[in-house]
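Table S7 (text form). Paired inputs.
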Amino acid sequence: MMERIRIIPLLVVLLISLTFVSNACFDPLDPTVIENKTNQNLSIFLNDEHIGDVAPGRQIRNKTLLFGYAKYVVQAKNDRGEIVYSKVFTYEEMKQIKWKVVVNKIGE
């Protein structure tokens, strides 16, 4: 029983330490936001993962945090499956835009 009591504070300290280290080393703390400024419904992909569909004038957030990648590929496909937006961002570029990507009207 005494050993169990000693282990609990160690586990608490370890969990707190890991929280600080992970927050200091990784961005984003919030998921990536994709804003659809087109007049089309779009299917959004982040690093080949389909994160959902977004209506015109709306935003979508990916449900999983993606960090530690050298690059972030954001793609948007229209209802016909055609890629209407594709851009590769570096980690630093994503930090600069505060993890928010705006898909403008096609051709802009």
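Next pair, protein 2 of 2.
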Amino acid sequence: MIEYNIAEAKIIEIQTLNAKLVSIKNLYKESLLENNSELTNRLSNELANVQIAYDKWFDSMTLELGATPNPSQSWQVDFTAKKMYLIG
């Protein structure tokens, strides 16, 4: 495991993206259960956009940190400690 310190602003960015992603996924699941196709379509589009932003954040941080993860590794973020870990 490799540890990286992360600036407060970057932690806030990923916390916000993570909260949006979790919330939209939960709303999407609920919309499916309610057979609300209009809401499901809107949430599907929003989920795709937030997922892209989330993935771009990790791509950007990977470049910024000069990390070279291999396909078997993944990132873990500790919001409290303001650290990222490359694990696997």
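The first strand starts at residue 2 and ends at 5.
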